[in-house]
Design brief:
Elements lengths: L1 E7 L11 H4 L4 H14 L2 E7 L3 H11 L5 E5 L8 H10 L3 E5 L21 E4 L4 H12 L1
Parallel strand pairs: 1-2, 1-3, 3-4, 4-5
Helix pairs in contact: 2-5, 3-4
Protein name: 3-dehydroquinate dehydratase
Pfam families: DHquinase_II (PF01220)
GO molecular function: 3-dehydroquinate dehydratase activity
Amino acid sequence: MKKILLINGPNLNLLGTREKDIYGTETLEDIARKANAEALKHNMDLTFIQTNHEGEIIDKIHEAKGNIDVIIINPGAYTHYSIAIRDAIKAVEIPTIEIHLSNIYNREEFRKESVIAPVCVGQISGFGSNSYILAINAAALI
């Protein structure tokens, strides 16, 4: 059974109440339920986590080495400046998919650059909670 680690970064715990015009009305718990159901369709074991702390994200990435087949990450604001998360992804050599609910290329200028994407096998953005479903489907193909 393929093991997937899905990491959600800062402020994603506020989904459903935060900037609904950008992020929608689904909560992170709603998305977790949908993601788990999709993973089960592919006979994959999904671990779904959220943290607001960069160091904890890095620790989870390190712990994944040798234990996880694919990482899916919504790094939130860390997308644009966390060289430490980028380096952790590169170091563990686990195929990683970067995801975003919104289209980061259709927003403020500072959101258009990802320091994470260059060390990922791909990036999915702009499909709301379906970005998670698309990433799980992509993980099944890796």
